[in-house]
């Protein structure tokens, strides 16, 4: 089962873009649903059946404002490379993947805290 993360990434002009990520597959849309639909079109039937994590929209102890800002910067650079049809820098891709994994872990940690606080 793969995990899909849907992140809200502000663009330089301030308009929001949702970005869906699962493994090495990525997509964007004006809504979380559009991003998810575009991503699932790239996945095989056996790849998708997982958990969807929506990113928190504010920094917190699990994923800071600085990390959110860096994620937004990396996503903007990734989109620019994609739109230009050039390969995204491998070091930046690794950083993007690491931040995405950190946000996924943060979402899991937040959920665990909510469950145990009940």
Q: How many domains would you count in the coordinates?
A: 1
Structural class: alpha+beta
Question: Roughly how much helix do the residues carry, as a percent range?
Answer: 40-55%
N-to-C CA distance: 28 Å
Mean pLDDT: 78
Which H/E pattern describes the elements?
A: EEEHEHH
Radius of gyration: 14 Å
What about the largest sheet?
Answer: 4 strands, mixed
Which of globular, elongated, flat, extended, rod-shaped describes the shape?
A: globular
Q: Note the total helix count.
A: 3
Strand content: 15-25%
Let me know the number of strands. Answer: 4
Low-pLDDT stretches are 113-118
**Strand arrangement, largest sheet?**
3-2-1-4
Assembly level: single chain
Q: Layout of helices and strands, plus pairs?
A:
Layout: E1 3-10, E2 16-22, E3 25-29, H1 32-40, E4 51-54, H2 65-84, H3 90-117
Parallel strand pairs: 1-4
Antiparallel strand pairs: 1-2, 2-3
Describe the fold and architecture:
This protein has helices at residues 32-40, 65-84, 90-117; strands at residues 3-10, 16-22, 25-29, 51-54. The protein is of the alpha+beta class and 118 residues long. The protein has one domain. The longest helix has 28 residues, at 90-117.
Provide tags for this entry.
118 residues; four-stranded mixed β-sheet; alpha+beta
Could you give a quick summary of the protein structure above?
This protein has 118 residues and is an alpha+beta fold. Helices cover 48% and strands 20% of the residues.
